[in-house]
Specification:
Elements (H helix, E strand, L loop, with lengths): L2 H10 L5 H12 L9 H11 L4 H11 L7 H19 L4 H11 L15 H11 L6 H16 L7 H11 L4 H7 L8 H9 L10
Helix pairs in contact: 3-4, 3-11, 5-8, 5-9, 5-10, 8-9
């Protein structure tokens, strides 16, 4: 098996098509920036600078990736929202009513971004999903409909990567728990370069300012 296919088989107990596996690869590739300015990559770089081991450094960086606002938590909250929204529609409810109730109860994860309004990863992933004919699922449709509703409230509430990835995974049949496991290595390929770059410099010199 392809490594991704094996990983997801272990999480879901299901085999996925070649197109689905390719899409899942894409979902990981475009989040693995080898940039030590990113919060979890900073941990990997600090570990390299402190002369820790790759295993400990990457494990610490992965633990940092579980952040509530911008890490693992939004993926889980977002897919849970889409699954419940889809069930609401299937039962005959209106999506607008569901969104309004969610907003009244708190926030909807997967929309809005603290630095840039538009998420640069979305067009790339949507293009691949389209090429693979995996962009026609009900959860992705809901994600796009919700974006239109939220942008009408505030232009800053455009869809971010958590919503897109969660909607696509929901259309692959992922549950919230499966999504939580799937997203664990989503930043991982960018961590080792940051660790190695810092380890190649004098010890304890990361962030000298």
């Amino acid at each position: 098996l392809d490594w991704m296919a094996l990983y997801v088989l272990g999480i879901t107990g299901r085999h996925h098509s070649a197109a689905q596996v390719k899409l899942m690869h894409a979902l990981w590739v475009c989040t693995s920036y080898p940039d030590a300015r990113i919060w979890n990559n900073r941990t990997a770089a600090l570990a390299g600078s402190a002369r820790s081991t790759p295993g400990l450094g990457i494990a610490a960086a992965l633990a940092m990736s579980e952040a509530t606002i911008y890490g693992g938590h939004p993926y889980v909250s977002s897919i849970d929202f889409f699954i419940r929204a889809r069930a609401h529609e299937v039962q005959g409810g209106a999506l607008r009513d569901f969104v309004e109730a969610e907003l009244a109860d708190g926030r909807i994860y997967g929309y809005g971004r603290p630095i840039a309004t538009i998420d640069e990863r979305l067009p790339w992933v949507l293009g691949i999903a389209s090429e693979l004919q995996l962009d026609g699922g009900p959860h992705l449709r809901i994600a796009l409909d919700v974006e239109r509703q939220l942008v009408a409230l505030s232009p800053k509430l455009r869809m971010n990567y958590a919503a897109l990835m969660s909607a696509l995974c929901a259309d692959l049949g992922f549950s919230a728990i499966e999504m939580h496991h799937f997203q664990v290595p989503v930043f991982m390929a960018g961590m080792s370069p940051c660790f190695i770059e810092a380890a190649d410099k004098a010890a304890n010199t990361v962030f000298p300012l």
